[in-house]
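ingest -> fold -> write
write: protein_1
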Amino acid sequence: MLHARTSAAERRIALRAALAASLGGNGGPLRFPGAFNPLSARLIQELGFEGIYVSGAVLSADLGLPDIGLTTLTEVADRAGAIARVSDLPALVDADTGFGEPMNVARTIQVLEDAGLAGCHLEDQVNPKRCGHLDGKTVVPTQEMVRRIRAAVTARRDPNFVLCARTDARATEGLDAALERAKAYVDAGADMVFPEAMADLDEFAAVRRAVDVPILANMTEFGKSELFTTAQLEAVGMNVVLYPVTLLRLAMGAVEDGLRRLRDEGTQSGLVERMQTRARLYEVLDYPAYNAFDEDLYDFRLAD
C-alpha cells in the first residue's frame, strides 16, 4: 500500500547482492524492463522481474521530446523517484552525461540517492547527447569521462548505490577503444560497465574478458544490437539485461491503434476486450489494502 515496503537502502543492498551472485555464476542475468510510469513498475514487480529501469529515452518521449539531452536533472529525478518508491525492486536510472560538469555530476548522484534509486548509469558522450543506437554520436576524451566517474564516486554517500559507466565508443572509435575505455572506467571506480551498441555476442564476450565487474546489455528494439535471449547473454557473461523502451512501444502501439478505431468506428466497444479491466487495475493498485487501512482507523477505539 502507498509506497514500497522496503527502504531505498535495503533495495540497494539487494541489488549489490544480486549482482555479486550473477557475477559469480549463481543465476542468470538480472532482467530490468523499462517502466514508463509507476503503475507499470508495479506490474514489473508482480510478474517476477529482478529490477526496474528508468530510461532517458522513455522519459524524453513521454514529455514529447527527442532523446538528445533536453531533460533536466529535476525532471529525471522526479519521475525516477516516483517509479522507484512504489516497488520493492531496485530501480536503475539513466543519468545521461550527468547533467553538466563534474560538480553537476556530483550533485546528480546525491539527488538520485535522495530520490530512492538503487543506481544510475553515466555515459561518455558529449553534451548534448544522442540516443545510443543512432548514428552521429561523439564521445568525450577518456580522461573527461574518468573525471565524471570520480566525481560520482566522491559524491556518493551510500556505498551500495551502484555507479554504472556506459561507453558509446564502439560506434565511433571501434571495439578495441571501447574495451580500453571500459577498463579505465572500472579503474576510476565504476561498479558496472554498460557497453552500448555491441554488434554481436562475440563483442559482449570481449567486454567480459576485459573487465571483472558486472556488465549490462541493452536489448532495445530497432537498434544496432540483435535481440538476444537471456540464455544467450548469460552464456557470454552478461549480468544485467535492459529492455528500456519495450513497454512504452507496446503501450503506444496499442494507444495509436485504439485511437484510430475510436475515430473510424465512433465507439470503443470493439476495444474493450483488449483493455485492462477495472478489477485488474484495482488488483494491481491493491485497493483491498487501502480499504482495510481505512476501516481499521475508523473502527479503532481506545480501551477504557
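write: protein_2
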Amino acid sequence: MSGPPLALTLGDPAGVGPEIVAKAWTALRESGPAFVVVGDAQALASAPGAAPVRAVHSSDEATRIFASALPVLDLPLKAPVVAGQPSAAAAPAIIRWIETAVGLALSRTVSGVVTAPIAKAPLYEAGFKFPGHTEFLGELTTQAAFDGARGPVMMLTAADLRVTLVTVHEPIARVPAALSVEKIVTAGLVTAQALRRDFGIAAPRIAVAGLNPHAGESGGIGREEIEIVDPAVRALKDLGVDARGPYPSDSLFPAEMRAGYDAALCMFHDQALIPVKMLDFWGGVNVTLGLPIVRTSPDHGTAFDIAGRGIARPDSLIAAIRLAADIAGRRA
C-alpha cells in the first residue's frame, strides 16, 4: 500500500465502534485501503475478536504495518469504559479524536477521515454544542481554503441511490419553517459539485423532492412546493445545475426513477434515510459534502444494546472506508 492512509476515529468506545473497527481491519488488512485509528488503544485491544493493536506515531508508520497490525494513534481515555454503558466522562476524548483526525486531514497527513458512530446525549452532557458529527466537522474546517460551494451537506449512499438533505436533525414540526430557497439552492450546488468532483459524474442530474404528499397537489396539500421548492429548482437551473422537480417523494425512489437521476435532494431526514435503508440496510454510507477534507461514516449508530457481544456487523464501516478512499483518489 502506498500514499497516506485514512484516519478512522473510534467513536463512542462504549458502543460497537471498537468491535467494527477491528473487524474492518481484519477484512481490509491485505487489500486496503489502509487506515490509522485515532482513539484509545486499550479499548481496541479489548474489543470482541480484537485485532493485534500497535501504537504508531506517524501515518507512514501506519501504512507500513497495516498488513500485520491495526495501527492506532493512541490518545487514551481518562478512565476505562464499559461496553453498552455510555458516559459523559468519555466525551472529551471522543471530541479530541475527531479534532485530531480533522487536523491530520487538513495537513494532508492522511487522505481523509472516516468516523465511527458517536452518541449525542453523552456529548451534550459534557457541553458539546453541535447537533452531530456533520455540523462539528463544518465548524472545524470553516477556516480552511476550499474551491467551490461550501457545506456541510449530508449525503447517504446505498446500492445505486444517493440522497442529500436540506434539513438534517430537525423535528418534523419545524421542517417547513427551516426550509428556504437559499438552503435548497446551496444544498443543490454542493451536491452537483460533489457529484462531479468526488463521484466522477461529468453532467450530474439532481431530482428534487417535494415536502408535502403528492408534492403539494398544486397547492391543495401545502404551498411549500409553490413558494419555496419550485423557485429553488428554477434558481438551480439558472445556475447551470440540471435540477428537476419537485417530485412526490413516494414515487421518487423505485428503480425506474433512480435510473433517471444521479442524486435525489430531499427536504428532511426520514424522507432520505428510509429509502437508503430499505435498499441496503447494512451497507449504507454517510458522506459529508462541501468540505475541504474527505469524510465518510457508517450509516448506523452506536448500538449500545449489542456492544461487547461480538455480533456487530462491520459492513457499513467497510463500505465507508472504501468510499472515502475512492473519493480521496479522485480529489488527488
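write: annotation protein_2
The chain has a mean pLDDT of 95.
The longest helix spans residues 181-197.
pipeline exit 0
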